[in-house]
């Protein structure tokens, strides 16, 4: 039996042998409590701080202490939103975001609107998955305390103009936060050059373990911890430090950033997407790209509208053929609601929101994977069209 083709790396990535080994080695060698002063604690603390340095260096943070290790993107996003609101509400109660952010940003903001009297401006996104920078400028006012705009959209892969956004926000009273969960390791990120104040990252998107990530917090930005407990993470995030996960995460970072690997990965992903597009064209499959294939798209993600084909049925048929894709964010895959990302881009009545699939690439994907996907699509889509025609008749 052939191995399954996994093309849902935006949902999660498989751990690599190297990151698994780093984690199991750490469980054996560095099991001490990193906050303890005994020998085993000091040993664990030493390697934890080395991992923190790797994280800081990867985004060009000025200080290692600007990195707070968390359980992942959701905790980091929630911490920024809730605790910025708590710390700065006397200065203003206005926050700016986009209509197609991840739920880890949108849902806390909805909560602030409904229960704590905050005003949230949701910037429009166009059919290329981009915002209008003038709309951002117009929305900023003296009451704005936070601008939270993702680096790369998790469903269509659009790469937002983070540098230009940072340039705009730096001259205001607001802090600039970016959810970089989908962009980290895929596109260039420099928190100093891009004027980023706060940034969220998750390890399991770059072949690291789940339940570990980091929150970058620019030196001088202070708000209370989201949780209450001990004084770990420089009093910013209580809880005994997960040293094995942090070391595995650091290994994943090194594998993505050392020796130009990020650029090599990007070139490989772009080549695979071109192979897929060429194969779809040669197969006369009726499709369109959601977003586009220009430089303002992240290399690893492609979202395709298969015209007239229900995405839920196509997804099941692909799965039966050993191909794993996604109809949207893994966080809402069990929902009957259409993708809020595609609704924001194309409107509630567009057939795209029920007929689109996302394919996202990782370091384990090969040209053979794309060949198998194309082979499956060439068989499945004509069959589904015939079945749809019979139902109409």
TrEMBL record:
Q: Name the catalysed reactions.
A: (sulfur carrier)-H + L-cysteine = (sulfur carrier)-SH + L-alanine
User: This protein is called what?
Assistant: Cysteine desulfurase
Origin: domain of life: Bacteria
Q: Which residues cross the membrane?
A: none
Enzyme Commission (EC) number: 2.8.1.7
Species source reads: Limosilactobacillus coleohominis 101-4-CHN
Q: Per the database record, which ranges form the Aminotransferase class V domain?
A: 5-373
What family, per the record?
Belongs to the class-V pyridoxal-phosphate-dependent aminotransferase family. NifS/IscS subfamily.
**According to its UniProt record, which cofactors does this protein need?**
pyridoxal 5'-phosphate
């Amino acid at each position: 039996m052939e191995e399954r083709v996994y093309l849902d790396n935006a949902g999660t990535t498989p751990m690599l042998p190297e990151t698994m080994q780093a984690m199991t080695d750490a469980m054996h060698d560095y099991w001490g409590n990193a906050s303890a002063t005994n020998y085993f604690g000091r040993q664990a603390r030493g390697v934890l701080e080395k991992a923190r340095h790797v994280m800081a260096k990867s985004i060009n943070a000025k200080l290692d202490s600007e990195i707070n290790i968390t359980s992942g993107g959701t905790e980091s996003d929630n911490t920024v939103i809730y605790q910025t609101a708590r710390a700065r509400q006397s200065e203003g109660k206005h926050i700016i975001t986009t209509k197609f952010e991840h739920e880890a940003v949108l849902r806390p903001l909805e909560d602030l609107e409904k229960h704590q009297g905050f005003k949230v401006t949701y910037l429009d996104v166009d059919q290329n998955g981009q915002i209008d920078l003038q709309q951002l400028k117009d929305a900023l006012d003296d009451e704005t305390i936070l601008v939270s705009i993702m680096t790369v959209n998790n469903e269509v892969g659009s790469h937002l103009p983070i540098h230009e956004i940072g340039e705009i926000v730096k001259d205001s009273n607001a802090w600039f936060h970016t959810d970089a969960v989908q962009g980290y390791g895929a596109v260039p990120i420099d928190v100093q050059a891009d004027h980023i104040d706060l940034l969220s990252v998750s390890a399991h998107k770059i072949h690291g373990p789940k339940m570990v990530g980091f929150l970058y917090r620019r030196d001088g930005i202070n708000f209370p911890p989201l949780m209450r407990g001990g004084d770990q993470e420089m009093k910013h995030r209580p809880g005994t430090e997960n040293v094995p996960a942090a070391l595995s995460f650091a290994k994943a970072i090194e594998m993505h950033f050392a020796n130009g690997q990020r650029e090599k990965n990007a070139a490989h992903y772009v080549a695979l997407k071109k192979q897929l597009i060429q194969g779809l064209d040669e197969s006369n499959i009726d499709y369109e790209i959601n977003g586009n294939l220009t430089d303002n798209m992240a290399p690893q993600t492609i979202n395709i509208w298969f015209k007239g084909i229900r995405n839920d049925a196509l997804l099941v048929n692909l799965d039966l053929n050993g191909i794993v894709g996604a109809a949207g964010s893994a966080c809402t895959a069990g929902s009957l609601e259409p993708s809020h990302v595609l609704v924001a881009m194309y409107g509630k009545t567009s057939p795209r929101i029920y007929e689109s699939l996302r394919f996202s690439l990782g370091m384990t994907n090969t040209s053979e994977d794309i060949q198998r996907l194309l082979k499956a699509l060439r068989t499945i889509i004509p069959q589904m069209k015939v079945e749809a025609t019979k139902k109409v008749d």
